[in-house]
Amino acid sequence: MQVVATDCRDYDRKLVLNTVRDALTSLQVEQLVARGDSVLLKPNLLSPHQPEAGITTHPIVVEAVITYFQELEVEVKVGESSGGMMVNQSLTEQAFQKTGVLAVCQKLGVEVINFDRASTKIVSNDRYDFPLPEVLLEADLVVSLPKLKTHSLTLFTGAIKNLYGCIPGMKKVGYHRSCPHPADFSELIVDIFELVKPDLAVMDGIVGLEGNGPGSTGDACQIGVLLASQDLVALDAVAASYLGYTQNQVPITRIAAKRDLGSNQLQQIEIIGGYQPAQQGYRLPSNALLSLLPNWLLQPLFGSLLSQPVINHQECIKCQRCVQSCPQDVIVDRQGLEIEEKGCIKCLCCQELCPQEAITVKEHLLVKLIRSIKGFLR
Length: 378
Ligand code: SF4
Ligand code: SF4
Hints:
Elements: E1 2-7, H1 13-26, E2 38-43, H2 59-71, E3 75-80, E4 85-86, E5 89-90, H3 91-98, H4 101-108, E6 111-114, E7 120-124, E8 129-133, H5 134-138, E9 141-145, E10 147-151, E11 155-157, H6 171-178, H7 182-196, E12 200-211, E13 218-229, H8 232-243, H9 251-258, E14 270-272, H10 295-305, E15 308-311, H11 321-325, E16 331-333, E17 337-339, H12 349-353, E18 359-362, H13 365-374
Parallel strand pairs: 1-14, 2-3, 2-9, 3-6, 9-12, 10-12
Antiparallel strand pairs: 1-13, 4-5, 7-8, 10-11, 12-13, 15-18, 16-17
This protein binds iron/sulfur cluster (2 copies).
The site of one iron/sulfur cluster (SF4) has 14 residues, from helix 12.
């Protein structure tokens, strides 16, 4: 299976358009669609952030992919459900606006679909019933447009994890609640991937996110790559290797490969496009250090070793976004918001969604110790 990884150092409109066009032409994507087909693009608009934050798919990349498909005379739509919801208020609308993707869609005459409010159909496997937007299920071609980022819970978020945003609004919170362990949550993400099964992914790795992603406690970093593939597992495996993950370290790609949904074995993937990483790996999330512990120690202690979110009262504006998005209802007001450690599953949804960067993560002492011994993180 081929993954195109092309050097692309900035968001110059012409450069990105040419890079996307060359990548998709080399994958013969034009043969996947016929004139008049419907194409649904799913960017990663996790929460309302400016493009420069490195958290959301850059509007120039979204614009380039729309333009490529419009040249093929197909009908393009862009759909997303962001990471949380306030009572009677969809964060997705704010995210479309603040990330600049709404403006691009308006300019190019493309319909924007807020999955929080779209009609859905239940699609089931033997474990779950998922409400998925009908527009997504009915599209002739589905394209995942992820951002290349670290993720504190699943270690990496790319083309496959991006599909969690196909689940509307607060329904995502319920799945987090039913899968508190990262391994189970990763299985659930792969369940969604198996049901949606996009035909293609184009990843924005021009500026990515390192450290404790996927939200504002990660740090934007220049990676300088644009990736594309029809094998989303292979694409994610290649992108994760650029961040510094070893082949089987990322649970989602490992599980997806085990289910024969693609390959995560780098030696089996043909990487074309000529990209050479400018540096050897990036700063991984604190929780990535846990994979260095032996299983006999890790298994019984796992939950308590994960990084714990903490609210900084000086920064908190009591907007209630974290309270309403917490799957465990453990954020309580006691003369200022506090997180009850008992019951917190450390999913870090609260931290992802905080508009003030008022939620930081506290590393367990053992993790700090490993970090100092191994010098693993910069
Ligand atoms: S911690 Fe952040 S999300 Fe939670 S109430 Fe305060 S500002 Fe809002
Ligand atoms: S407090 Fe934050 S990390 Fe803990 S369960 Fe709630 S949303 Fe998840």
